[in-house]
Write a structure and sequence with these properties.
This protein is α+β, with helices and mostly antiparallel strands. 63% of the residues lie in helices and 6% in strands. It has helices spanning 6-11, 31-35, 61-73, 95-98, 100-107, 129-133, 150-177, 181-194, 199-211, 215-228, 233-245, 249-258, 307-334, 338-349, 355-367, 371-384, 389-401, 405-418, 423-447, 451-465, 472-487, 491-504, 509-521, 525-538, 543-560, 564-568, 576-590, 600-620, 623-630, 635-658, and strands at residues 49-51, 58-60, 93-94, 110-112, 123-125, 262-265, 270-278, 285-289, 295-299, 303-305.
């Protein structure tokens, strides 16, 4: 296993250039200071400096990432090239956070202009270099001396301009590699102004535009490059990247299909078109189109294809796959197969953050009731383009389902302000406004105790909202209608609506509490108790949930306790004398002595009845116990409360005598 050294990584990575600022441009008087800020990887002065070890050795951000990636590919652990201390990614810190003073010292190092060889005599501080390079007033390059031969002078001027522009491009590439895309773009623009006929400068600026989230500008630069060189493969591929970033997958496919993918088929010497490069197998192979229009597959060694054509074919294959996935996702959305659409778009978004794909994913998430995900995705689109009408419409829908009706209405108005004829904005506005009016009408009807009217308004709101199965609004509207059904004593319908609300949001407290009340009304106290036990685990400190739990517990005990009035065969309004007389009569009927000769089962039943009669007299014959029984307490709870009252009375009596 080969060890990756710093030198091998820097020199052996294709056309990789050192990321930092060349130390040859440092003023001789500051060279000693500059050595302290030399990147441990590229050995140039650091850009976007990071500290990754306890010895405070510094790295360019891009160099460190590339170094760690290279080590990982070779199965090695990344360590500081200077001190060999292991590099822990989570401990990597920007230099400005680790040592603000060091950053100030770095910024003050005196430098020459990187284009000094082109005749610029500027010197200044390191922090001023990017601004200087794009400043026409301070950045001056030597002009060729006038000669009698005008053509020679023009050629010399052109040569100087290209050299200057190339130097600007190289500095731009350095900043691009450090992630400073806006600054890199300024240098590419300066290079274009110096030498406007070089297509590479346009494609480099297009790459910066793409990284800054501006695909339209990137496409325009690619078009400019292609006007200069129609066969420039990098411009074709980057134009495709721009089309994909705008979500126009089919335009990207059409553009690449129109590009030349010509190759020579060795067995016959014919010129053929390469339709597809297959790389999924160990041995790559091609699909080619012959001059007669037929297609065949052939091995790589039988086709001579230029690298430029290869890159176009590979990009075409990638974009075709993206287009197919996006089309399948749109079809799934149209068929209301939202989960399938979300899964397909997840793959698309792993390769591009195109606004149409993001919004399609947002629509799928909102339709599934995942409003937070929908809001996050639409926020991403609006952050890049605050005038995106589709994003406002989708976001309004997400806010509606999140029960943020006022905010949803505000976004609908903004969408229609931007485009009064936008169909999605109109539909969203109508839906939000309708739901808002109907919920207000339902509340007003409930306040007037017109629960039939409340049910009707809420039913209309549910139908108008086109609710997903899982969403806060689904839970709220069904929970509110369940409350109205409860007041109308339509308990089964109430429970059905509560079930829908709980399925939409399993922590919908209002639905759980309303369902418990309906279950109590149907004497299903044990079901209510099971629900309240589960809810109490979620809302442990909620007084309403605690009260409902205690009520359910009490109702279950009440349901299971003996029915003492039935045992004595007296009405609940019977007087104390009537209770005692009934007891005497029932005792004579159930006394165990009367069943001495009876079968064992009858004897046991008589003993149970006799004991129960005693409990009935004990409870109903005592005013305090009887009151507690009428309130729903069972015998154990009655005994506990009576004992508590007696203990309090005794303690009060002792306290009274103590103070006499």
């Amino acid at each position: 296993k080969a060890t990756v050294s710093v030198l091998n990584w820097v020199r052996g990575a294709g056309d990789r250039q050192p990321m930092g600022f060349s130390t040859c441009f440092v003023d001789p008087g500051d060279e000693v200071v500059a050595r302290e800020f030399t990147c441990s990887v590229c050995q140039e002065m650091v850009l976007e400096p990071l500290v990754a070890c306890s010895q405070q050795h510094v790295f360019c951000a891009e160099c460190l990432q590339g170094w760690m990636d290279a080590k990982q590919r070779h199965g090695e652990s990344a360590a500081c090239p200077n001190c060999n201390e292991p590099i822990v990614p989570k401990e990597v810190t920007p230099l400005k956070a680790a040592s603000p003073i060091a950053v100030r010292i770095l910024s003050k190092i005196r430098c020459r202009c990187p284009l000094a060889e082109q005749g610029c005599d500027w010197t200044g501080e390191y922090s001023e270099v990017p601004g200087h390079l794009t400043n026409t007033a301070t950045h001056r390059t030597a002009r060729p001396a006038a000669r009698e031969n005008g053509a020679t002078a023009a050629a010399a001027a052109q040569k100087t301009a290209v050299a200057t522009a190339d130097a600007l491009k190289e500095q731009g590439n350095t900043l691009f590699g450090a992630g400073r895309f806006r600054e890199a773009m300024s240098l590419y623009t300066k290079a274009i102004s110096v030498a406007p006929d070089v297509p590479t400068y346009y494609t480099n600026r297009a790459a910066a535009w793409l990284r800054c989230g501006a695909p339209k500008e990137a496409a325009a630069d690619c078009e400019a490059a292609l006007r200069l060189d129609p066969a420039f493969a990098k411009a074709h591929v980057r134009y495709s990247n721009a089309m994909v970033a705008m979500g126009d997958f089919h335009a990207a496919v059409a553009h690449l299909e129109a590009c030349s993918r010509e190759a020579r088929y060795r067995p016959t010497g014919e010129r053929v078109d390469v339709v597809k490069v297959h790389t999924e197998d160990t041995t790559p192979y091609y699909t080619i189109r012959l001059p007669d229009g037929s297609e065949r597959q052939t091995t790589e060694d039988k086709v001579d294809m230029a690298p430029a054509a290869t890159s176009i074919v590979q990009e075409l294959d990638r974009v075709k796959q993206l287009a197919g996935l996006y089309d399948a996702a749109e079809a799934a959305l149209g068929a209301q197969e939202y989960k399938k659409a979300r899964d397909l778009l997840e793959v698309v978004l792993s390769q591009t953050r195109a606004a149409p794909a993001i919004l399609a994913a947002a629509r799928a998430e909102v339709a599934l009731g995942r409003c937070d995900a929908g809001l996050r995705l639409t926020r991403e689109v609006l952050k890049a383009d605050s005038t995106h009408v589709d994003a406002y419409a989708v976001r309004a829908q997400a806010l509606l389902y999140s029960v943020e009706l006022d905010q949803a209405l505000t976004l609908c108005r903004e969408a229609l302000r931007l485009d009064p004829d936008h169909a999605g904005g109109k539909a969203a506005f109508k839906r939000v406004r309708t739901v808002q009016k109907l919920t207000a009408a339902a509340k007003k009807a409930s306040d007037r105790r017109e629960f039939d009217a409340a049910v009707e308004a809420l039913t209309d709101a549910i139908n108008a909202a086109e609710l997903p199965t899982h969403a806060p609004l689904t839970a709220k509207l069904h929970a509110d209608r369940a409350t109205a059904y409860l007041r109308l004593q339509q308990h089964e319908r109430c429970i059905q609506d509560c079930a829908v609300a709980i399925y939409a949001e399993d922590d919908c407290k209002a639905a759980w509490l309303t369902k418990a009340n309906a279950l109590h009304a149907l004497n299903r106290h044990e079901d209510a108790l099971r629900d309240m036990e589960a809810l109490l685990r979620v809302y442990e400190n909620d007084p309403l949930v605690r009260h409902q739990y205690e009520r359910a517990e009490k109702e279950v005990r009440k349901q299971k306790r003996p029915k003492y009035y039935d045992v004595l065969q007296v009405p609940t309004v019977a007087s104390e004398m009537e209770i005692k007389n009934a007891y005497k009569k029932r005792v004579q009927e159930c006394h165990p002595d009367k069943f001495a000769a009876a079968p064992k089962e009858d004897q046991e039943r008589a003993e149970r009845d006799f004991k129960l009669l005693g409990e009935a007299l004990e409870v109903l014959g005592d005013p305090m116990r009887r009151q507690l029984y009428d309130e729903g307490y069972d015998k154990a709870a009655i005994d506990e409360r009576v004992e508590r009252a007696n203990r309090a009375a005794r303690e009060g009596h002792r306290h009274h005598h103590h103070h006499r």
